[in-house]
Specification:
Number of helices: 6
Number of strands: 3
Distance between the termini: 25 Å
Order of helices and strands: HHEEEHHHH
Largest sheet: 3 strands, mixed
Strand order of the largest sheet: 2-1-3
Length: about 180
């Protein structure tokens, strides 16, 4: 995480920001009932843990560590609209990223926002009790739904999302990807 922000052209996370992220993950996991490892895997997938990640924009704004659905937590209001490479706009980048923003980013992604589900809701909607609920919830979190066929590699957005999360939960960080969709 301390070397995760170069791709966005913003300062890397400080030791303090990483410690605040760890504490927030633990606290929010406890309060929400969502496994802290799952929260961390989603953070790594969505932002590589960069507290100053850009805000993506497709049909809604996706700010912060977990690129939440119209969330309010962010330390970088620059955005990358669909189809436009790089960073667009003249947003604000906060350095250091305040603890309150770090907590809000993780809350938005875990507990959901007024306009979109978080991990908690996605997990609850799965109706499965085995580990597949995490992969199904991850697919729903990324694309808004699961393809009617049940194939987690089909549908909207990042087609490898569920397999990437599965790999992250088993320790993958920078290994080669076999899913290139």
């Amino acid at each position: 995480m301390k070397a995760s922000c170069a791709q966005w052209g913003v300062p890397d996370d400080s030791d303090t920001e990483v410690a605040e992220m760890k504490a927030a993950i633990s606290d929010i996991a406890s309060a929400s009932g969502v496994d802290a490892r799952f929260i961390l895997a989603i953070i790594m997938q969505e932002s590589t843990g960069c507290v100053r990640v850009i805000t993506t924009q497709y049909s809604v704004f996706n700010p912060g560590l977990m690129q939440s659905h119209n969330g309010t937590g962010t330390c970088n209001t620059n955005n990358a609209p669909l189809g436009i490479p790089g960073i667009a706009g003249t947003g604000v980048v906060q350095t250091p990223c305040p603890e309150s923003e770090i907590r809000q980013m993780i809350t938005d992604g875990t507990e959901g926002t007024s306009s979109g589900d978080g991990l908690k809701q996605c997990l609850q909607e799965q109706g499965h009790t085995d580990v597949s609920r995490f992969y199904r919830a991850a697919r729903q979190y990324n694309g808004g739904s699961i393809d009617p066929s049940g194939d987690l590699g089909k549908g909207c957005c990042t087609l490898c999302y569920a397999s990437d999360i599965a790999n992250r939960l088993t320790g993958w960080v920078k290994g080669a990807r076999s899913c290139n969709l």
